[in-house]
Structures are given as C-alpha cells and as structure tokens.
C-alpha cells in the first residue's frame, strides 16, 4: 500500500501529472522546531532540472505545510505536506497511449488495476518520492539534532565506472588469500564523507578520481538517446546499538524493504555484501575489542553495523543498485497494448541516469527506517524501565544495572 513505518508512519499520495504530490506523517514528536525551509533542503536536492545530468522537467518542488505545525513547532498531530506539480506536459506521452514502455510500470499497473493514469508514470513516477523525501527530512533532522545520527549517501558507480570498493584477490597457492574485504579507500570514505562533499559535484560522487568519468558516461548515454544505471552507497553514523526487531523486521531487512521500494532499484547489499561471500570466516569475522570507555566494539566492520538483525553501534553502510531508466528516446522494437509490433521512441523529459537524484531519496528512506526503529526500541525500553533490576543472573545473561 502507500504507507511505510509502524510508529513513525508515512503515507504518500500523488501521481506524476496530478495537481500535487505529498504525504501525511503520523508519529512526529510534539514540540520539535520545524519550518518549511528545514524540509526544503532535501526536496531541492531531489528536484528535477538540477543539472545537465538530470531530466529538464522544471519543478521547484516548494513544500507547503498543511497541518501539524503551528508557529514553527510540531503539535504531535499528523503533519500534511504538499508539493504542487507545475510543469506537467501530458501531451509528451501520446506514444505511451499505444505502447506500454518496456521495463516501465505501464503494463503492470494496467494489468493490476484494470485502469491507469492517462500520462507519465502515474503513481510509479519518481514524483511519488517527494512525499518520502519530505517525511525523511523531518526524521533526519530529529535524528541529527537529538541523537547525533548522520546519514550520508553518495553515488558509488555509474555503469561500469565505480569508486574503488572491492579488493579481494586470490593467488594460485592460496585460494583464501584476501588483500582486504573492501577497499581501504572506500572504508575511509564511509567514515568521513559529508553531504557538503557529496554536493560539490553534480554527479554526487565524492571521489575525485572517478566522478569526471561518471559524468562523461551519463552525458554519453544522454547523447545516444539512451540511459545508464548505477549504485548509491549510504552510511549511517552514530547509531545506538539495539535497533531492529527480530525476526522478520531485522534492521537490514527494514532497510532493504525501504530501499527496494524506491523506483528503479534492483539490488541491495549490507556491509561487505556480495564481496563478503568470497572471503573465509577467519577474515570476514569482526573481532570484539574493549572500547576506551568500557564495553565492546569491533576491530573491523564487515557486518555493516548489523548482527542478528540488530544494530551493534558500529556504522551501518549499504549499497543500492539502480537500473538504467526505462524511458529512452532511442527507438525500440516492442509491441503495442493490443499486441501489434512496432517501434517506440519515447518523447517527454527523462533522467538519463537516476543515481545523482536518488541520493537524497536513499538518505530519506534510511532516516524513516532509523526513526521508526528508534521509536520502537525506546517504547520497549520505557516499558521495561520501571521493572526492578535483575541481580541474581550471570553477566552473560543480563547487563549490569546502568548498562541497559
Ligand atoms: C530519481 C528518479 C528519477 C527517475 N526518472 C525516471 C525517468 O526519467 N524515466 C524513467 O523511465 N524512469 C525513471 N525513474 C524510474 C521509474 O520510476 C521506474 O523505473 C518505474 O516506475 C518502473 O519501476 P521499477 O523500475 O521499480 O520496476 C526514476 C527513478 C528515480 C528514483
């Protein structure tokens, strides 16, 4: 359906060419200082027409607060946010009255509902993600201000051009030889990257050695009336241990759900991901070490900050794969709705590559997951807090009082 989250609950509405898109958010804590400008920052990073690498559809995407906020403070009641669709051009899509676009959602929406929006992608359009980004911006702000949690996403590949991320290599003598599970440069990037650094370049790739090649690759796709895919990596720093609900709502399962609900996503990897499958356990395990101020940390973090579906206090990092956008103006042999073979060369305005614009969407969906999981864990803790401390059980079974 169109709702995501349990305690921090977001419902999005709107199609690509209707009057407006937006969301209702339930569960925002009362008393949070919040203005439209706070929400606008992420919406402006998502909006179309930002550079020659994105669709030229010209939308300002200015957010209008409808409810739940008075005199710049949240009331604790549902927050309604609205963004007008201003630059609709439904006539751009007349070919798609005849043709379901290959690998777009026209055919499946029509098959499912028996009726579909007359133009554009309707509800499957990336316009829908405006509601997610607006809601995510609120969660993101609360998480940063109150808990110091930082969420930063960046473009990690375009087509075959990738920031250096894997380094596994085997030798003939030792098939288990591993230089490193992931590239040290990539690990360094995960611990230092900021949104400001990401936004220094229109590709939203913070790695100086690769971004120019990425930019050129997108331009080549655009000039060939074609499109190209890529990946977005995201890191969440400063997360407390203990988030995630075994067994079906594991933290990384929630993240995967959130990410794979973004249009055009095809893949999700947490921590070492697929690279980790090539490495023996003796190199892949994250050994425990004593933290400076007591308690345990790990000396490596190939787990990506999640073990048993629960955050362990290390950085959570993951990668999301986005396909090459389906709508291309290069002619394609396909079939009309009635089965007549034909050639479709889509008109309209399209993204040659979605990853630069997907960055704030990934951050926002991550913020929604963290906020929801944090509220669930806080509710559990608050419920357990009045219980008397358990002193009769060994420390392998129960944390000492004060450590809970
Ligand atoms: C930021 C963003 C921009 C997008 N822009 C386009 C676009 O211009 N053209 C297109 O065909 N698909 C675009 N998409 C992807 C489609 O919405 C998506 O492929 C389509 O709904 C089919 O869904 P699926 O790819 O998840 O199966 C975009 C996705 C995102 C996240």
Automatic annotation (TrEMBL):
Q: Which CDD domains match?
A: Chorismate_synthase
* Top-rank taxon: Eukaryota
For this protein, the record's InterPro entries field holds:
Chorismate_synth, Chorismate_synth_AroC_sf, Chorismate_synthase_CS
Give the UniProt entry's GO cellular component terms.
Answer: cytosol
Query: What are the protein's GO molecular function terms?
Result: chorismate synthase activity; FMN binding
What Pfam families does UniProt report for this protein, alphabetically?
Chorismate_synt (PF01264)
Kindly report, in one word, the top-level EC class recorded for this enzyme: lyase
Report keywords, A-Z.
Amino-acid biosynthesis, Aromatic amino acid biosynthesis, Lyase
What catalytic activity does the UniProt entry give for this protein? 5-O-(1-carboxyvinyl)-3-phosphoshikimate = chorismate + phosphate
For the biological process aspect of GO, one term held by this record is: amino acid biosynthetic process
For the keyword Lyase, the answer is yes
Q: What protein name applies here?
A: Chorismate synthase
Q: What is the lineage of its organism?
A: Eukaryota, Fungi, Dikarya, Basidiomycota, Agaricomycotina
């Amino acid at each position: 359906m169109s709702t995501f989250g349990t305690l921090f609950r977001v419902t999005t509405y709107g199609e690509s060419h209707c009057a407006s898109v937006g969301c209702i958010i339930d569960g925002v804590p009362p008393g949070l200082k919040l203005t439209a400008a706070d929400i606008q920052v992420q919406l402006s990073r998502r909006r179309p027409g930002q550079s020659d690498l994105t669709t030229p559809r010209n939308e300002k995407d200015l957010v209008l607060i409808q409810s739940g906020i008075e005199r710049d403070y949240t009331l604790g009641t549902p927050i309604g946010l609205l963004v007008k669709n201003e630059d609709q051009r439904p006539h751009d899509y007349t070919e798609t009255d005849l043709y379901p676009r290959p690998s777009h959602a026209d055919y499946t929406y029509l098959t499912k509902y028996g009726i579909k929006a007359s133009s554009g992608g309707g509800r499957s359009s990336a316009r829908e993600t405006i509601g997610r980004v607006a809601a995510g911006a609120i969660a993101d702000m609360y998480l940063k201000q109150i808990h110091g949690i930082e969420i930063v996403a960046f473009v990690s590949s375009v087509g075959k051009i990738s920031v250096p991320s894997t380094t596994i290599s085997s030798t003939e003598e030792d098939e288990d030889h591993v230089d490193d599970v992931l590239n040290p440069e990539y690990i360094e990037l995960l611990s230092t990257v900021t949104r400001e650094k990401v936004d220094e370049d229109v590709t939203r790739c913070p790695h100086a050695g690769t971004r120019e090649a990425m930019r050129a690759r997108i331009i080549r796709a655009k000039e060939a009336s074609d499109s190209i895919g890529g990946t977005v990596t995201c890191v969440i720093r400063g997360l407390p241990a203990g988030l995630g609900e075994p067994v079906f709502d594991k933290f990384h399962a929630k993240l995967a759900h959130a990410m794979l609900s973004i249009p055009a996503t095809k893949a999700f990897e947490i921590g070492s991901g697929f690279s980790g499958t090539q490495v023996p356990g003796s190199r892949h395990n994250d050994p425990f070490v004593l933290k400076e101020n007591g308690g345990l940390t790990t000396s490596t973090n190939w787990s990506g900050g999640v073990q048993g579906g629960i955050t362990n206090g290390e950085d959570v990092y993951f990668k999301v794969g986005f396909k090459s956008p389906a709508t291309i103006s290069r002619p394609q042999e396909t079939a009309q709705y009635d089965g007549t073979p034909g050639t479709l060369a889509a008109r309209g305005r399209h993204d040659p590559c979605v990853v630069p614009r997907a960055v704030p969407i990934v951050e926002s969906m991550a913020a929604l997951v963290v906020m929801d999981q944090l509220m669930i864990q806080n509710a559990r803790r608050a419920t357990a807090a009045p219980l008397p401390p358990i002193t009769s059980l060994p420390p392998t079974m129960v944390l000492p009082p004060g450590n809970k």
